[in-house]
Amino acid sequence: MRKLSAATVFSLGFRPFFLAGAAFAAVAVAIWALWLYGRLPEAQPVGGMLAWHRHEMPFGFAVAIIAGFLLTAVPNWTGRPGLNGWPLIGLVLIWLLGRLAWLLPISPAGVLLSQLSFLPLLAWVLGRDLVAAGKRENYPILLLITLLAGCQLMTLWGLWTDDTGLQRRGVLAALWLVGALMSVIGGRVIPFFIQRGLNRPATPAANPLPTKVLLVSGLLAAVTFAIGLNDVPRFWLAALFLLMGSLHLLRLWRWHDRGMWRVPLLWSLYLSYAWLVVAVFAMALWHLGLMPQQSLATHSLAVGGIGGLILAMIARVSLGHTGRPLLPSKAIVAGFALVLLAALSRVLLVPFAGWGLGVSALLWCVAFVLFLWRYTGILFSPRA
């Protein structure tokens, strides 16, 4: 047992959670696509396959990667030791129990109880260190994690009460909270990575007001999804999303450097963030009555934005925190391209061709399998 707790893979949060999240991303989307095309048995998890898919992509996949990233970043921000050994193993097992609960012969209430401890525990672990170190500038991240826990409770309460509308609102609010987290974390690391990756001189600090407006508007957007205001088009919500999109575009313009197109670890981050911009403007168009399906905006965010940024971030962070050169293999560069193509397929092909979803799912799964192929050995190995 001592050997297990001392294993390299449990030395810091990014190692087990990046592996688990990437593996789950590939398996979960493969299961969803096979079921949609009638290639799986009729037996379904508690609440049905749609409820499982809705819940597991944000609260299973995305939350695992968020946990791995923050359990690694917060020790860097605070100078305090990161979670490791048995406490980290315990947190991973709690996450894994939540994934397996859907397959067990238990009631919706049992599924609900098995899920609800992970995010509060994560918030407590992160908050303990941030408060002890007095890092008040990072408290908004704690707020976002806490609100994600509330969205999960809403989603699972809808499952327990068979309220599909409540489930949908909880999941959509969670997706846009993850989008808000993307804007916070991306706003910090993407310009820094571009500057360091291209050896550019440090630029003057940007005006903090647009960043604060983006955070507040992102939280407001998530709240409007949670309370059902996005169920029908509303002009004032179009204005909100147009404001968000304009500020995101301003960021992309400020960050752009022609040299980044030669560096896969940079263009992958940049283009994934651009998908967040696409999602925000797509919501504005939907509220103006200029786009027929709100789901196109949702999947722009989920597949291109969240999926793309996650793959780019875990590839870069895994190399940096294991002491390896920031030179991804050709396989993972192909993965960056595949996940972005998966987003294009999901948004542009699916409305016109039934096979478009299968293409998108296949591209997505291959992208994350490539990550597992090239990075499993790295994440199990000591720092170089």
From TrEMBL:
One Pfam family named in its UniProt record: NnrS
Keywords noted in UniProt: Membrane, Transmembrane, Transmembrane helix
InterPro entries listed in its UniProt record: NnrS
Organism this protein belongs to: Pseudomonas umsongensis
Transmembrane segment boundaries: 12-37, 57-74, 86-104, 110-127, 139-160, 172-193, 213-229, 235-253, 265-288, 300-319, 331-349, 355-373
Identification of the protein by name: NnrS family protein
